[in-house]
Amino acid sequence: MTTDDGEGTDAGGVDWDARAATFDEEPDHGLRDPEVRAAWAARLKDWLPGRPGDVLDLGCGTGSLSLLAAEQGHRVTGVDRSPAMVQLARQKLAGRHAVFLTGDAARPPVDGERYDAVLVRHVLWTLPEPGRVLRRWRDLLRPGGRLVLVEGVWGAVSPAGIPVDRLTALLAPLTARVRVERLSGDPALWGREVDDERYAVVALRE
After folding, report:
1. What angle do CA 117, 122, 127 make, to 5 degrees?
2. What is the pTM (predicted TM-score) of this model?
3. Distance between CA 75 and CA 95 in Å, rounded?
């Protein structure tokens, strides 16, 4: 989830290297609770390709979603700005078909590789020029590949995030094949009830 300027630090000044050791304590980060883990695994199975493929997990954090994807047979490349997060992800997926790189999710250091799915959770809203970033991510897909974007809007006083209507509008010039799945009503995903806007968008490259 670390994506912006400075090694391991985002645009808001959050030092994700310093937070790496405790990052997985949040239920939807570490997926340590069996119910939360099962909920995310079921969603990923629906969102990602049915056959094993190449998945690029951008802003991968400690690799919890990467691990679920690998367990479903996918070959995973994870990218995160934080070296500490990347190190934890490598440990978590040791022995799996997975590679983790330190780099910017907005400009992944993948040297022209193409993927069957680009998976991004709670990252796009932090990036400047999200329309340009989405186009770049779309271009990383093979024909028939998919963007899987998990986003939302958090906070009532000073909301942060990206509303679903804005995200689908940004995707409209790139593809007409967009599916929105509302996630706020599923407390198993978050380990608690939530009342803010949380959703996933699956957009296919035509």
Report:
1. 95
2. 0.92
3. 12
